[in-house]
Amino acid sequence: MVKKVFSIIFTFILAFSVILTPLTASAYEVTGVDITAKAGMLVSMDTGEILYSNNIDQKMYPASLTKIMTVTLMLESEKYDPAGKVAMTKEVQTLILGTGSAVSNFQIGEEITQLDLVYTVLMSSFGDCAYLAAIYYGGSVEGFVAMMNDKAAELGLTGTHYSNPVGLHDEGNYTTVRDVYTLMSYALKNETFKTVCSAPPRYTVEATNMSGKRTLSTTNFLIDNTTNYYYPYAKGGKTGYTDEAGRCLVSFASYNGYNYMCVLMNCPANADRRYEFVESAALYRWAFNNFSFKEVANSTDPVCEMPIELSLDTDFVALYFEKPFVTVLPNEADDSTIVVKPHLKSESVEAPVKKGDVLGTADVIYAEQVIGTVNLVAGNSVKESKMLVVLKYVKGFFGSIYMKVVYVIIALAVVIFILMIIRLNMARIKKRRVKYIPYGKRKGDRNEH
Question: Cα 342 to chain center, whole Å?
């Protein structure tokens, strides 16, 4: 019953935080924790705020974190049927032979349910089962890898490319910490993925056509209370390891209403100490002990005003936060250092305006970092003035491109008319002109006659 309640609450949190809250680029100095991972991040799943960040966009090898995408495509396939059977093949065993990947002990021809196949890939990270899934759901390994890269593009994983469904080392199989967070957040919205990912550390595979029941064990020691790395507030995750990738872990934890996801990549591979588990738990403790929710801006106090046109009632409309802005901040954070920077859609707005219309956004800034962006909405409705609207259209009509053309035509017509008048007057003057004969010349002419 408790698990069911947690599942419902966690699903709601994921749906709200992943869909509605963007990942905000903020980070704080981690105190009391030594991080050996070459890249990593700690993110609030409630607000999307980054509390810890290191090389989150740097190219990294994912190892078996690749299987997050593999299982995501399995569960989204039209062929997926949890009770349907899939049989192990010789082709799969040949593909995995000599790779060093963890493998199951399924025999050729042995059938397991597709749900059990999900557990073998996600929980126990068996490479042969990942290949089996790729061939079954993608038609071929190549076809499935193409599906993986198409899905990566669809999710906006710009720093990710896949070359195999297992996570075997290859120059063409890479990702980033940011992309792992995005992919895991998306995958957890699938109920089956979330259930398997956060399942107890042991799972029983029912008897098959060739074997009795088997017990699978998780590779995520954070949720295994039989290990020294057990962390009681961890809820699930996925591990990965190759020599080139180092130790990798993406996990999530919840405590007292706070939910975080941690991604650590390329931790040292030490037989005596699993740094990925130790450091993830340390980051969770740091966050749970030092951060809390704070309402840094409400939706009842105006943020700014925006000039309004076409109204005789008012010259401005007050803008408010669309909803209260709650984020995760250090416990000792000083509210007076929080700055709100508005960004209006335009210099002014024309009436009518309805209460709640989005007229801009506002950045919330703490310690010179943008920790969130919220819509700014009109705090009240403003009616338009019919007279001002008519004047606007009249002014617009006479200032329109069509009227400008008319003005040019009229001007040309006037110029042509004036030129024609001038020309006609010049012709008349020419007709009236009389030939001038000198007086002396005329007298001489009479004497001659």
Answer: 22
Judgement on whether residues 232 and 342 belong to the same structural domain of the protein:
no
Strands 304-309 and 349-350: parallel
**306 and 364 both lie in a single domain:** yes
Long-range Cβ contacts of 266-272 (<8 Å, 24+ apart): 266/37, 266/38, 266/39, 266/60, 266/61, 267/36, 267/37, 267/38, 268/36, 269/241, 269/243
Residues 350 and 381 in one domain: yes
Q: What domain count does the chain have? A: 3
Among candidate residues 335, 323, 319, the one with its CA nearest the CA of residue 299: 323
Sequence-separated (6 or more) residues with CB below 8 Å from residue 313 = 382, 383, 385
**Same-domain check for residues 21 and 65:** yes
Cβ partners under 8 Å of residue 134, min gap 6 = 70, 140, 141, 144, 145, 165
pLDDT, tens digit, 9 for 90 and up, residues 262-278: 999 999 998 899 999 99
Cβ atoms of 235 and 220 within 8 Å: the answer is no
Q: Tell me the HSE value of 389 on the side-chain side, using a 13 A CA sphere.
A: 8
Q: Are residues 193 and 275 in the same domain?
A: yes
Parent domain of 406: 399-439
CA distance 255 to 281: 12
Report the chain's C-alpha Rg in angstroms: 37
Structural contact between residues 176 and 160, judged by C-beta atoms closer than 8 angstroms: yes
Query: 272 and 164 in one domain?
Result: yes
Each residue of 64-114: pLDDT tens digit? 999 999 999 999 999 999 999 999 999 999 999 999 999 999 999 999 999
d(CA 410, CA 219): 85
